[in-house]
Amino acid sequence: MYDAFFDYLSKFSSEPLSDDDKALIRRTFIPSKLRKRQFMLQAGDQCKYFAFIVKGAMRMYSVDDKGTEHIVRLGVENWWMGDMESFVMFLPSPYHIEAWEHCELLYITREGAIDLQKKVLAFCEMKQQLDERNHMANNRRLASAISATAAKRYTDFIECYPELYKRFPQHILASYLGINKDTLSRVKRQRYQK
Asked: Which Pfam families does the UniProt entry name for this protein (predicted)?
């Protein structure tokens, strides 16, 4: 499991991980597995761990008063999953995080993440780059939700995240895009008729 993470980290830093870095990472991350449909986090609980997805697919969602699920985030291999606000602020999370497929994960605590940022340059560089990318992605998603048509949201999604498009069913993708599955079916039909 750790080798996959070491390979991932190497993409963010020009300097290779030292043996001491690798040993510290092994001591800090906790390997874990989730079965399909098993929860990493349930609404009302504090997010005590962030997870690096070594294998599998996950979804993060809220449930409204009518029982409708609203997908906030999807993740697959080499992605991170967790509720950042709950993780950082020690607050109960409004989200459920569930394994959509069988998952192999590396968990890290907040204290562990802070320690690695101080001691492992590659981890610090990774976090900085991911924070920047996440900020840009969140802005794009917000702008899209406010002003883009369903067709444009769908097109942007499959172009940006082909790995997610292939792994999740239509009703999950529709919820993530903020449209109903009938609208998504219509958009897909129109797209493929062109």
From this structure: cNMP_binding
